[in-house]
Amino acid sequence: MNSQQQQTGPSHSGAALIGVHELAEFVFCPRAGLLEFENRHQDVGLEDRELVHRLDYLPDFDAQAIEAALEAKWKEIWKFLTWAPLAVVVAVVVGLFINRTLGWLLALSGAFPGYWLWRQIRDVATLAARFRAGTEASGQEPDMSRHEIQPVNWWSLLKAGFSSVEYDGPHEDPALGLIGAPWRVLHRDSLRIPVFRKISGKPELHAQHRVRMAAYAHLVTTAEGGQSPYGVVLFGRGYDGVAVPFLPQGLAEVRECLARLREMLAIVEHQKLSPEVPAESICANCHWGRPIVCGGSESNFASAQYRTKGNDKRIYSSRCGDRYRWVPPHKIALAKGLREPE
Ligand code: SF4
Asked: What distance in angstroms lies between residue 330's CA and the mean position of ligand 1's atoms?
């Protein structure tokens, strides 16, 4: 703990429910865990919460929804193509026999429906590719007797008989004081397989992902019964990922990390200390340390920004920097030459 960077601690007691995403952030970096705890974002089973709103609007990961959207798009396009020739004839007739300028205006106004049509065709191509990926997959699932990480494919799991369930609310274990919501849970008989999506970064797992998956598997089986011999992590925006075995030591690790997180929260609350700077250079790609141009809307701490000037003469701050009063060595901060203010 760092006594030079005193901050007001969280108002929650050590017995407060801890979110799985808060736990995972803590495993990644204690400062990130505290930031996540203080901001209390809803767990949605996605590592990159900020990308949630940038996920596209077309259905995905659900064959029936994709097929229905595809049919609806085709209907719209055919309706458009039915009326489009008539509109062209009207524009030509007006231009030739009534008023040439008005005819050109009518023709030019066709740019908007043309753009609409281009977007519809683009959506149809996207949906068709997704539908093909689902229909062409063959049923395959991880070998549960092998206690190791194995590659998986979303559509292959569905073809192997799993159904995907999206829950309205999080799963909770009051005894452990843990709460969390995987992105989906795959059901088949008594199997309950939590699924989590790591959207950005390399398709690889770190300690925070293994703890996260173990925590989800524990929550799902505690709340519903059944077995979670493994959890699934899907990488990027695609359908490939890995199955992560859920072993007894996984739960032991969750308990141990929870105890350490609670200990840190108690120290922050009672002694007004901040967690130490992480030992490794994990700040390089951390979203909390990413510099934001001051005046932008992204910082949650606009009233207490820790501002530094970049070599491009612009003023920056970051959420981690605002909270802990420093300049995290994020790769963008290094590139822009951000330094501690004098
Ligand atoms: S920027 Fe660095 S210190 Fe801050 S939360 Fe991220 S990893 Fe931790």
From this structure: 8
pLDDT digits (tens, 9 = 90+) for 96-141: 778 778 777 777 777 788 888 999 999 999 999 999 999 999 999 9
Q: Which residue CA neighbors atom 2 of ligand 1 most closely?
A: 283
32 ligand 1 Cβ < 6 A: yes
Best of 7, 36, 286, 338 for a ligand 1 pocket test (most atoms within 8 Å of beta carbon): 286
Nearest ligand 1 atom to the CA of 324 is 4
| Contact 323 CB / ligand 1 (< 6 Å) | no
Beta-strand relationship, 178-180 and 150-153: unpaired
